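Attaching the record inline, Q. Sequence:
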Amino acid sequence: MELQPRLPYLHGVKWVWILLFLCLVAETAFADDQDPGPERWHAPFGGTFSANFTLASEYTSSGISQTQLKPAFQAGLDYKSPLLPAPFPLWLYASVWGSNVDFPTTGSAVEIQLLGGVRFRAYGDRLGVDLGYIHHAYPGIPASLSYDYDEISLNVGYDFGVASLAGRLRYSPDSYGNSGPSWNKRASLAVPLPFLKVSEDIAFKLYGTLGNIWVDRYLEFGIPSADYWYWQVGLVTSAYGLDFTTAFTDTSIEPSGCAHTRYCAARFFVSVTKVF
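Structure, as predicted:
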């Protein structure tokens, strides 16, 4: 049996218009793990909106290419509530995020993530905690394939000044492709590089991540064993309102366990992100 991994370039014109519309809304009306962007526009109930837009050489999720190593176009809208009554900064959030995907079994499509939850900060904003829910949807792909799934996510991070350390745990009761329960654990470290001073408008940051995914019915998920490791290291250059990322990613999956492709193999990718 040759495995078809969860491998998600956008061929269908209709998906281009869907994603372009998402970005247009982001600009006129007012994004695995991060706070919504800076407060940009006033929103209902005293909250604020922000938006983000990314162009990338590929869309990679947990080390596996979701676009068959082809370019990705991504956009997100974020809502942040006003601070809730609490002895520390506490607020609710809701987000919608979209990207093109390209799976060998279904071809080009789009992935939409709906996110919501609660975040709080403590110890002078050094400690951050995020408890949330994520719904992954693939409109246009037959429901019989059971690609849609849900996750509960917990993120905890601490900023030590010289570096930031974070951990993320995601659980799904029935993951992608009706593959049953899954756990996705990831640790990340980010280190700002203030000594690389080019100008006041340019800053650099190194980051690294290490994660592990375990899936009950792993063949349905599209991997050759019950779990695999993934890792990534990269450099983020923030310049004049844009974030440029150059990164290297890899997994413990051999090409033979990834449909004899390089979709799970060691590779570089680049991206540029703008927050509105």
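Residues 7-32 have pLDDT under 50 and may be disordered. The two ends are 46 Å apart (CA to CA).

More tomorrow.
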